[in-house]
Amino acid sequence: MATKNARPTRPNYRCVECGHEVAKWVGRCPECQAWGTVEERAAARPGLAKLVAGPPSMRAKPIAQVPIETARATSTRISELDRVLGGGLVPGAVVLLAGEPGVGKSTLLLEVAYQWADKAPGPALYVTGEESAGQVRLRAERTGNVHDEIYLAAESDLAAVLSHVDEINPGLLIVDSVQTMSSPHVDGSPGGPTQVRAVTSGLVALAKDRGLPVVLVGHVTKDGAVAGPRLLEHLVDVVLHFEGDRHSTLRLVRGVKNRFGAADEVGCFELRDDGIIGVPDPSGLFLTQRDTGVAGTAVTVVVEGKRPLLGELQALVAPTNLPAPRRAVSGLDAARVAMVLAVLERRGRVRIGDKDVFTATVGGMRVLEPAADLALALAVASATREVALPPDMVVLGEVGLAGEVRRVTGVGRRLAEAARLGFTRALIPPDSGKLPPEVRATVVPDIGSALRALYEHAEQQPG
After folding, report:
1. Which site in 261, 377, 380, 410 is 20 to 30 Å from 401, CA atoms measured?
2. What is the pTM assigned to this prediction?
3. What is the distance between the alpha carbons of residues 260 and 257, in angstroms, rounded to a whole number?
4. Which distant-in-sequence residues (6+ apart) come within 8 Å of 112 by Cβ?
5. Is the dihedral of CA 375, 380, 385, 387 positive or negative?
6. Residue closest to 80 by CA, chosen among 58, 108, 103
7. What is the per-residue pLDDT for 459?
8. Please, which pLDDT band fits residue 48 given cuts at 50, 70 and 90?
9. pLDDT tens-digit profile of 245-265?
């Protein structure tokens, strides 16, 4: 019997995106500004939330006695993907592969399903919620990924997916995509925060219970973030971003989160009409093949994850009659380019304030690392003075506002990659550590020293 002073339980409301609680329902979360993410949540009465000890699911044991055989990764037989995953797919792991539409996610996962089925550790089940089974079959025919051990189902209901898993007992489950799936036990439309959270939780529980590796395809927003609640990335074990320019065949799979390996690895792929293949040595894609130096170009070495990649930066400086000269940037950070141009004019005495400056990378490469600052500065100076850097020289260094050239990490590893591709000279910052003997390095402490090295080389050239 309720006492006279007992207060009725009042519901409260909580944002499923950020967890912020409010006293009444609102259409837009006041904390994260997301629309339609505030849901009702019954408030617990004081005194009823006492914890009671219960039987554990398994006894705790010393960590050295925990068996690790069940956590061994199985290779996907795609070396570039294995690099990012940390060796392959772990039983019970849930992998989220996110990327823009048309970048090649489904093509890559069809190849994963084919390689998995071909080595016969168990059939692969491919569930598509965005396309018909016939459309997926046509893509498999085009890319040569038809196999008797690949099972295909066009479903958007989580309960139906679980029925297929019970019937087929696959060794690998691919769901394309998680935003198209819905759970019959939860309200909300497919793709909404509530449905995405429920579907992902159900698939994670399935994966852990059966030791079944699950790969989920995820959509991205216009800002490049994974669509849906932030909780989605916390629930899964591995988060991969599939990146690529529509005008280039190069695709990068970048690790964002990985509970089974390094989270900063990058895999390189080339998307073709007949499928997608790994590119174990992608540096050649970002260089222009020539035997002589060309004014306005400089080669640098950037690090993607743990992989050093050579990239070519190009600059074009042209006179203009416009009151505000143009600054066009492609493949580089526009703010970083503006800073380097200002330092080059103020500290290096290179007059470019009244000229149009166009900067770009080769092969669709995106260079955001500060280690490419010096190469960008020398490419612009080279284009301004019409003098060329040696074709066998790489340039490394971060440029500060005072014109100093700062140290960057892994100079020895970067120069070793350059030496492997035939580069024999380098301009590097001070205190760069041990260097490979194949490369003759010149230390440049500031932007002025780097420009003098450029001009001295030009004076030594015949003609």
Report:
1. 410
2. 0.78
3. 9
4. 76, 78, 81, 124, 172, 174, 215
5. positive
6. 108
7. 62
8. very low
9. 777 788 889 999 999 888 888
Q: Which two tokens stand for residue 440?
A: 């003759």
Tokens in use for 287? 């260089």
Q: Are 288 and 271 in contact (CB under 8 A)?
A: no
Q: What are phi and psi of 409, to 5 degrees?
A: -80, 150
